[in-house]
Amino acid sequence: MQAFRLPVTKLAGIGVHTAQRLEKLGIHSILDLIFHLPHRYEDRTKIVPIGSLVIGEAALVCGQLEHLEVLTRGKKSLICRISDRTGGLSLRFFHYTASQYQALQGRSWVLAFAEVRQGYAELEMVHPDFSVFLRPELAMPETGLTPVYPLTEGLSQTTMRKAVKRALVWCQQHPDALIDWLPDSLMKPYGFPTLVKAVFTLHAHDAQQPSEHTLHPALKRLALEELLAHHLSLQAAKAATKVWQAPVLAGIDQHLAQFTAGLAFQLTQAQQRVIEDIRQDCRQASPMLRLVQGDVGSGKTIVAAYAALIAISSGYQVALMAPTELLAEQHHRNFSLWFAAFNVQVQLLTGQLKGKARQALLQQLHAGHTQLLIGTHALFQDTVQFHNLGLIVIDEQQRFGVQQRLALREKVHHEGMRPHQLIMTATPIPRTLAMLAYSDLDSSIIDELPPGRQPVVTSVISAERRQEVIDRIHHWVAKQRQAYWVCTLIEESDVLECQAAEQTAQLLTEMLTGIRIGLVHGRMKATEKEAIMLAFKTHELDLLVATTVIEVGVDVPNAGLMVIENPERLGLSQLHQLRGRVGRGEGDSYCVLMYQAPLSAIARERLGILRATQDGFVIAEKDLQLRGPGDVMGTRQTGLMQFKIANLERDTELIATLPELGSCLLAQHPEALTPLCERWLGHASRYAEV
Ligand code: ADP
Ligand code: MG
Fold it and tell me: Which DSSP category does 600 fall into?
């Protein structure tokens, strides 16, 4: 194992206990500790006279102990009064250990650091960091800024500081651990410090202090290296595919023409253009790697179907992967219909298919009888063996990570041949992100919606007006139209979200007598879900209460009203996706964002954007801008790539320089590729080893 991948327990003073806590922060190795940067700094370099303390600001004070008292009135607390020549201050502790109490009792000078607040009688500090001294001249301020690290339950700032300090000392003893792979000549235009200097500066290990932390060159230096590693690994993956062979898929023109002629509509110009790109790619003897971006409702499915027919009529199998079972089931229905005329064998494989039925399906597939296999990620388990897979289509790729996508490409091959890949994504990706996350793909954009689409009228209203919304559903259903009611909860709790949907469905059933209500959520059996969706599609149900499982793919044009509860909890792009379920038919359509008051200013602004525009690209850009670093709402959407240090929004200008920097580095130091990817991507770097 490389030295820096050593577990943190190799450092003196870090035991199993601390290691377990660190693990919760994603810190496993010594290197992880080194890249665990402070999110802010405290200035304990100057002792502030008590008389000039400012309420609300943190400060270091040094005072003589005057009085120590345990208060038992109200909440039990320990009060320690100190003073210097300029004034007095109380230190208040609600919990304290016996040794802390003793320490304060014995000595007479206290050095304390905390935020200052107004107490009953005078200024006070609550739970300050403190140390005690016998003589004032022994109480020294720090020589550098004090780093404050992101923590997790059970891990104290002191433990974290010590751990990082040990890791840094270890680094000094093992110069090989942080080899600088970016030579001075390439770093000069940026004016960034070296790697080691950057790391030490950010941990406030030397006198040079980061002032504006997030703009500091040292931080940018690390972000650049991390971004570069991601960029290079994708480039390497792309280069690797160049030497791969793929079957030439010419398709049967007559079938394709018959397919288009049989559709109920004309393909848009944009759809035709993208189809032409795909046809060109499939005729090559190297695998297609094409990303199709198209806003929600732009008609990507039909493009995927066309591509599938090219491969199938060329005698090859096709796999179509969707992120949810619901969507896989819908695709299964649609493709079976569309391809019935061509006698194509279409099968559905999800995680819920078990036992004999599954065995039979897998046999059919392996024997080559199945021509189109549709499913969730269950498609790419080891037990699934294709006969001659010619094309993989990934729908709603934004739901899968970059690594999953690459792994898939690596995995499937047949007699030295790799399948072509078509990747569909609905969430339009901000340009900078696309440059990085999809730099290994060719891309086509469906930049046109089918004709006749009416804009979705979006309103933002408080949940206090719930009754009005319910009345509205009554009127809507009376007009023979259908509606969605979407229940959202915090992402982590799937169970709670499903429970909320169940309760809502029940409540609405009581309030909306005479209206046929269905419920669908992620924890239902596949067959149940399928039955409900079918009933909704065929208008045997008027209102569908659902969790965010319907976010992707679901297509019922007559459903033109959507109520989204607690929209403030979701990312903008996700809301845009959800809203994309309505506005699919010819009639008018509405989306009601029903928030829980009070709404924060930023949430109001975000929802306002959704009301103002229906352009997915605009929404994606704004979403990225408005989302602060570490905002949990957004992680799933930009969850395309996970970064330790880089921040796509902040580091836009760095991303723009990656292609040139990357090729210069590879030309001058090809040996840097593997260690850089190893350092920043860990296991994922195997894609770069080509
Ligand atoms: P998405 O891009 O979100 O996957 P879909 O493929 O689900 O969009 O298409 C949305 C709806 O538009 C479907 O009902 C589909 O039948 C319809 N559609 C697709 N292409 C056209 C077109 N060229 N003209 C009219 N309707 C179309
Ligand atoms: Mg779709």
Answer: P
